[in-house]
Design a protein that fits this description.
Elements lengths: L3 E5 L10 H9 L2 E4 L1 H4 L8 E4 L4 H11 L5 E5 L9 H7 L5 E4 L4 H9 L6 E5 L7 H4 L5 E5 L6 H10 L6 E6 L7 E5 L1 H6 L6 E6 L2
Length: about 210
Amino acid sequence: MNKIYIIGIGPGHTDYVLPVARQYIDKCHVLIGGERNLKTFPLFKGKTLTINKDLVSLVEFMKRERVDKQIGLILSGDTGFYSMLTFMKKHFKEEEIEVIPGLSSFQYLFAKMKETWHQTALMSVHGRKQDYLLALKSYSSVALLTDQQHSPKEIAKELIENGYETVKITVGENLSYDDERITVGTPMEIMAASPYQMSVVIINNE
């Protein structure tokens, strides 16, 4: 019985896919991931399967096919931060999976900013609500994974409404892709520069 590989592929561009991740992907007969992630590997020779909302069927497929096929589940960023690893561990024993880490979008953006991030609260508002305003009271900066509902514009608006109109915000949009855009400004300036696509937000309250 084959293990299922859970593979972090970095922020997006193929340049940031670790060599070890490529080695594991090359072993796979089936590659599962989001549509955009699968496009990162156009030369993959095996079967590809796009993740959708029917995760129950996805689990059944993996349990059935791993008997005689090697399956890889590719995840953007790193596997250890708000990824499908939590979901997978609910359905597979630890000895049934193997996890390969990737570069996170936080690592990438802080490198672009030429800043360290050991004093930063790492959070996600991607598909969830987290109290980053409370975190700003204890940390000099907060880093957020975002989505369309909790977009940089909405975050900037909430900061203004709660008296943080002078903080510095950095928005990293489409990180590592050809259309990457990094925008720095006050909440008002960030709102003016919208709309944004797939983004990471860093709020600095020093």
